Amino acid sequence: MTPAPIAVALDAPDLETAARWASLVTPHVSTVKVGLELYLRYGPDVIASVRGASGVRVFLDLKLHDIPNTVSGAARAVARLRPAILTVHAGGGPAMIRAAVEAAPHTAIAAVTVLTSLDEADLERIGLRGPADDAVRRLAALSVEAGATALVCSPHEVSAVRREVGDGITLITPGVRPAGAAVQDQARVATPEQALADGADLLVIGRPITGSPDPGAAAAAIAASLRRAS
Ligand SMILES: O=c1ccn([C@@H]2O[C@H](COP(=O)(O)O)[C@@H](O)[C@H]2O)c(=O)[nH]1
């Protein structure tokens, strides 16, 4: 069976837990995601640990955001780990995004548009007035022009972003919650089925899977539900 287009966020406090979650979910999902918590604690070795024997695709979610020269060096430093995807913040601007793209030619650079934890009141307070859609579409367009081949946005904006950038760009949506699951610190959320129907290529799902007593079964259930819906 083809693994579901899900990246499981391995936001674990220790490497053993992350590696265990990775091995439990790998039969059901296409990708595992390493974020700041694990990478800052364990460094590059974490990639081999979660990749394990299965060789699952690893998404390195470091959300780089600095001047172009610094991001270029950081992207070059992690490119040797061959992550399938590496994130940078779109707000770093086109020169910074291009620097990451050029420094990591074998990795898809995904530009994070507007964090899924922000609601419209938050956006207004940080100076992004108007609907999230406007800022997300603007950041998506400039990121693609700068060479990003993937974008991170919430499921709320994914159809508008698809219209903006067309096919051929990988759209990645965190902020995904199965019906009835706790929203926690996310703000702009939708179900896995809705996110996929609206045009997402890869769904990032963390706690609804890893917080379950059986992460393998939770991943399998979401994967089965996506298959039924498609
Ligand atoms: O806008 C963004 C960008 C990245 N993330 C990351 O995705 C996961 C979501 O985890 P859940 O447990 O499903 O909430 C997490 O690793 C974030 O760092 C995001 O949520 N929003």
pLDDT < 50 stretches: none
Strand content: 15-25%
Q: Give the CA-based shape.
A: globular
**What is the CATH first-level class name?**
Alpha Beta
- Overall mean pLDDT stands at 97
> Taking strands numbered 1, 2, ... along the chain, how are they ordered across the largest sheet?
1-2-3-4-5-6-7-8
Given the helix and strand composition, which structural class is it? alpha/beta
Number of helices: 11
How many beta-strand segments? 8
Question: What CATH architecture do you see?
Answer: Alpha-Beta Barrel
Here the CATH topology equals TIM Barrel
Number of domains: 1
Quaternary organisation:
single chain
Bound molecules: the ligand O=c1ccn([C@@H]2O[C@H](COP(=O)(O)O)[C@@H](O)[C@H]2O)c(=O)[nH]1
Order of helices and strands: EHEHHEHEHEHHEHEHEHH
Catalytic activity: orotidine 5'-phosphate + H(+) = UMP + CO2
Pathway: Pyrimidine metabolism; UMP biosynthesis via de novo pathway; UMP from orotate: step 2/2
Keywords: Decarboxylase, Lyase, Pyrimidine biosynthesis
Family: Belongs to the OMP decarboxylase family. Type 1 subfamily.
